[in-house]
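Subject: sequence -> structure tokens, single chain

Hey, anyone have a minute? Need the predicted structure for the following. Not urgent.
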Amino acid sequence: MPRQSLPITPVSSPHPHTPSPRGGNAQALVALCKLDEHMMRLIPSWKPLDAEGLRQFLFLSGATEDTLESTLQAYNQSVELKMRREGVRVIGVKPQPGDPNVYTIPIPNSPYCLRMWTGGMDYWGQFCLDFFDTERKVPVNLPAGYALYPGLSSVPPGAVGHALPPERAHLQPVEEGEPLHSWERNMGMASIPEGEEKWSIPEGMHLMLRRRGLPDFMFQMPARRAPVVFAQPRMGYPYY
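Reply:
Had a minute. Here:
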């Protein structure tokens, strides 16, 4: 049976592909399906499927050579319906330069800062986190000799392993457990493109950054304002 041709008529006009902060040439990209059309609007760096990639996707969706176009039409209709109903939640996308909705914490004795942003994780009460080189102004992967751990501030005072104030944290030996792994490490990626590594951390959580030859650095994730205000207890009885 002859191979059915795809091109399929693009669903959007060509537009330049936004180069990454680490360089790269811009190129005209077009969306061949409705999902890519929507994603290219949401994420400037989104790379849509080419004709061959779309063919393979449709085959995995149950299409045959005879039903490629009808399968694509049905897929586009289902995407449009989903967009009208609840849309698509995109998670983990790194902020663009100049994004005002970003929190940062400078890391002492280093050219880096910790960067936090919503990244679509607000539904789960979390923020995304990565490392950012403030001199080169680019995101970086976990620097060599660095590791993130849960903070010890929740341990009751006086208990073994209770965290000291940040300026004295280097005086307290901490038994190292398992560090917090990034999304990419948890997905089994042995090689992570430079600047793409990220974590998702519950809001308000205390964390500890460990570095070879330097004191531990304690910090806290940002916290969103609670949508509901709860009554707070007061010491004493109301008739006092």
